[in-house]
């Protein structure tokens, strides 16, 4: 009996979840120009609103992870989708800075469990030898989905206004939350998966019921000494700073980029949607090229760790080319430098591999937590700093800021991470 391929249908559901997740993160970026004009927001106020999502998204990562361990993905993801989408709908009725800021915070809080759920679902449904590619597929949704959605979101706003944009995107999420609840099941509860596929998943290391040794490790009591340990090593600070740098450029594109094109470079609003899609396609291409380069280096005898370190350094250095947009005026050249920079971000997006490669074996989970925490801090810091830097009407300092962070990230991998080897502790 041939194994069924229900796991690929499940992967498609997750891919759409990620697309909707990032659609509701970036719809504010599309609406920002009109919102700023209607409420007469300063660039500093706009930067604060852009950052609001990340405050609660970051704060609720640990509680979200706890919920993922306690509730089934079918129920928790449906609740998460519907609640963050409802918060998105209500954003269309915001009356000013306070309400919009609060609703963006609510969106971040309700989205917090999403990626931990994605990881659990893929761990349940895919054997080890397919899991990396499955993660790459759903992760690509953040780039590929937005590449095609940017023009669509711009069109929606053109016809129904910024308020209608939030209502439409929110309704899509609510409906998809119902679809997820109707169609998703864990492997052992799915009526269409056959025994051959279940055996394939289980024999290949799929967790099936979501339990593993890693889960048991995660329930160990937290010790402050462990946190001190993962904050005291130069190599780990290298990957922490690198992750902050990678996410910094990403958050520029998720927040300020469309407003930059319209308000600071004078592009037509509808055309800006099409222009804005190009860097996302470039980032998607960067993700694919990074994977191919890593495989090529490994085939040439380069160690797996170094084969992944080089694309990260190269990608971060390429991201610095965002600076080129300060020296050109034509839309094509502006987008060229933006796309080149975002290609670099995609090329450097395999940073998580170094959490498991460098961290002490018994501290991988807490290292991953610190790594993710510092990386997500960029979602708070970058939009606010850009708001201050652009407050005088000149966006050039903001792009210099992003370029400097990219260069710092590359230097952190070169000089702080150094040789790729696991850190050994006395315990």
Give an overview of the whole structure:
The protein is mostly helical and 427 residues long. Helix content is 78%, strand content 0%. It is built from 19 helices and no strands. It has helices at residues 6-39, 43-59, 61-70, 73-91, 97-111, 114-125, 128-139, 141-183, 195-203, 213-218, 224-230, 234-254, 257-264, 269-299, 304-319, 331-347, 353-358, 364-389, 396-417. The protein starts with 5 loop residues before the first helix and ends in a 10-residue tail after the last helix. Mean pLDDT is 89; it is low at 212-218. It is a multi-pass membrane protein.
Feature tags:
single chain; 427 residues; 0% strand
What is the compact description of this entry?
The chain is 78% helix and 0% strand.
Using only C-alpha atoms, the radius of gyration works out to 21 Å
Helix content: over 70%
Total E-strand runs? 0
Number of helical elements: 19
Cα distance spanning the termini: 49 Å
Q: Detail the poorly predicted runs.
A: 212-218
Order of helices and strands: HHHHHHHHHHHHHHHHHHH
Strand content: under 5%
Overall outline:
globular
The overall pLDDT, averaged over residues, is 89
Biggest sheet, open or closed, and with what strands and sense? none
Secondary structural class: mainly alpha
């Amino acid at each position: 009996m041939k194994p069924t391929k229900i796991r690929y249908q499940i992967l498609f559901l997750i891919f759409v979840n990620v697309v909707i997740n990032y659609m509701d993160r970036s719809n504010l970026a599309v609406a920002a120009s009109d919102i700023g004009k209607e409420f007469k927001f300063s660039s500093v106020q706009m930067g604060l609103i852009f950052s609001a999502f990340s405050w609660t998204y970051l704060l609720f990562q640990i509680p979200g992870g706890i919920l993922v361990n306690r509730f089934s993905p079918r129920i928790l993801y449906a609740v998460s989708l519907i609640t963050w989408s409802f918060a998105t709908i209500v954003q269309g009725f915001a009356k000013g800075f306070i309400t919009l800021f609060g609703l963006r915070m609510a969106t971040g809080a309700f989205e917090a469990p999403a990626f931990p759920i994605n990881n659990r679902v893929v761990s349940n449904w895919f054997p080890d030898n397919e899991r990396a590619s499955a993660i790459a597929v759903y992760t690509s949704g953040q780039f590929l989905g937005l590449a095609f959605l940017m023009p669509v979101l711009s069109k929606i706003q053109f016809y129904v206004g910024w308020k209608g944009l939030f209502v439409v995107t929110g309704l899509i999420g609510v409906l998809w939350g119902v679809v997820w609840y109707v169609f998703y099941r864990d492997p052992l509860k799915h009526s269409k998966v056959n025994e051959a596929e279940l055996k394939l998943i289980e024999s290949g290391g799929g967790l099936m019921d979501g339990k593993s040794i890693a889960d048991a490790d995660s329930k160990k009591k937290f010790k402050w000494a462990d946190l001190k340990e993962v904050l005291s090593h130069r190599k780990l600070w290298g990957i922490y700073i690198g992750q902050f740098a990678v996410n910094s450029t990403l958050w520029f594109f998720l927040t300020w980029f469309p407003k930059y094109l319209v308000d600071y470079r004078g592009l037509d609003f509808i055309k800006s949607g099409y222009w804005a899609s190009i860097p996302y396609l470039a980032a998607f291409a960067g993700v694919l090229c990074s994977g191919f380069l890593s495989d090529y280096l490994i085939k040439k005898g380069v160690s797996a760790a170094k084969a992944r370190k080089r694309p990260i350094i190269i990608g971060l250095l390429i991201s610095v080319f965002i600076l080129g947009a300060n020296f050109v005026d034509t839309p094509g050249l502006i987008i060229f430098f933006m796309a080149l920079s975002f290609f670099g971000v995609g090329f450097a997006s395999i940073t998580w591999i170094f959490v498991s490669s460098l961290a002490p074996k018994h501290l991988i989970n807490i290292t991953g937590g610190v790594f993710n925490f510092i990386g997500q801090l960029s979602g708070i810091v970058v939009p606010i700093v850009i708001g201050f830097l652009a407050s005088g009407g000149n966006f050039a300092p903001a792009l210099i800021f992003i370029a400097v962070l990219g260069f710092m990230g590359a230097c952190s991998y070169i000089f702080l991470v150094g040789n790729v080897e696991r850190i050994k502790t006395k315990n």
